[in-house]
Amino acid sequence: MQIQELFYCAVLIAVFYILVTTVPRRWLDLWENFERGLQALARRKNLSCVAAGLLVLGVRAALLPVWPVPQPSVYDEFSYLLQADTFAHGHLTNPPHPLWRFFESTYILQQPTYASRFPPGPALAMALGQVIFGHPWFGIWLSAGLLAAALCWSLQGWLPPGWALLGTFISINLCLFSYWMNSYWGGAVTALGGALVVGAWVRITRAKQWRYAWHFAIGAVIVVLARPFEGLVLLVPSLVTLGRATRSARVWIPIVLAGVMGASWLAYDNYRITGHPLRLPYRQYYLEYETVPPFWFMPSSSPAPGFAEFDLTSRTFDTYKRARSWRLLVDRPLDWLILLATYLGNLAWLFPPAAFAALVWHSRRTRFAMILALIMGAASLLEVWWYPHYGAPLTAVVLILVTQSLRYLRQWRWGQREIGLFLVRAMSVAILVLMVATEARAIAKHQTANELQAKNRLKKKAEEQLLAMHPGKHVIFVRYTEPGPHSEWVYNPAKIDDAPVIWAHDLGQEENERLRRYYADRSFWLFEPDKSMRIVSY
């Protein structure tokens, strides 16, 4: 798909060149007037940030009639939603259910407490959406809008205003149409924290604007609460260089205060969930269910007790073995290519950085951003898996480097012809046209990401149909013939006993009777998703 888009982009650029050389001069004047308007907007920095955020929020809200609120289907999403529901009810975790074996699910702890295995950052945003708007997705929506505004603000610290606005434009596809907006996997919250750190760092170290220490501190807490390892990969070199630049108390007191409060809250969250302030829920889940560690240099453990309904061992162990071999040097660059395609929306944006990498490296303006990118790239080689949201703390850095390379492209001349200026303009318009056309086509053909998910995205619809036909409270036993994690249906909210429809594993007639006695006031149903999508009486 990306190769096809590159071809279409090249065709559009060629068409634009023909138009530029043939259309009347007054048409070109209209474009230049439009550019001057954008430059005037860019000079109003605060307004530019607000406009970027409102654009993302407004466009996605306007698309809701044709691209509705996404439904979860991946086990990561259900785990985050459990965590968000827990926070929305004012709790950090939930007591284990007396019959918890019926409710085991991928990436969800049942012991010592009923909780998600993930860090709390993304779920806190979803909980805010659930409390304010009644649905956790609106926390994702708000996060994506704030991310667009934060990226604009961050780039303004590194680049001239007009170029910062162009860099923000490049991020629109990520903020609007990627899975960061249209799923529950997270990404926007982490990138928001990273943008605050990167934008504050340059203002403190170069402009000596000490008041931005609070922005740095808040961003640091966000990235650690969202993705601890990758967040620290960004923070450690940033803190080291910040320490070399200034030792002012006005800078370090806010950072230390926020750091202590954030670390204390995270330790307390760990304690409530796992019983140990230094044991992350991620680690607790690994001890109970996983065999493959997150880093390839760590040894695998003996087979975890797990549960047959969604055994991850074979799939994860294959990836683990590849990560411990030379294949990692093939797989990880491909993972980074996917990351860049996700962040930039179109791989055409990668040609300027490839052409002007040496100039970007030697530029004092962007050298530290390049160093951060190289450090994150090296750190990614330690991990067994690498998805685009893993590198989210680096989102602003990627945009800074790409935009700076466009500045060099802008200066390219062929004789008296400003070829570089034309290419920057033509690429921007061509990629915008392709982005709008691609998403419009996906919406028209019902091929948006949420429409192409696994069948369990229909879980909410199945609950609504059951309640409409049979008012009351229900339990649905799920029986698998070929269990697999991507077809898991047994996910429940934080307060399982209060849910109108409860999903439970079929553990056999004798065990099932225990659950029937526990929920004596409920109707019981059987669902065999591998055979039929019908829910029948148990």
Question: What does this protein look like?
Answer:
Helix content is 60%, strand content 4%. The protein has 538 residues and is mainly alpha-helical. The protein folds into two domains: 2-68 and 137-269 and 325-444, no CATH class; 455-537, no CATH class. The strands form two sheets. Strands 4-3-5-6 form a four-stranded mixed β-sheet, with helices on one face. The protein has a two-stranded antiparallel ribbon with strand order 1-2. β5 and β6 (535-537) form a beta hairpin. α6 (137-158) packs antiparallel against α7 (161-170) and α11 runs antiparallel to α18 (367-380). The longest helix is centred in the middle third of the chain and has 26 residues, at 249-274. The chain is globular and about 85 Å long.
Distance from N terminus to C terminus (CA atoms, Å) equals 46 Å
Number of domains as seen in the coordinates:
2
How many separate helices? 22
Poorly predicted tracts of residues:
none
Approximate helicity band:
55-70%
Give the spatial strand order of the biggest sheet. Answer: 4-3-5-6
CA-based gyration radius: 25 Å
The share of residues in extended strands comes to: under 5%
- Class of secondary structure makeup: mainly alpha
| Total beta strands | 6
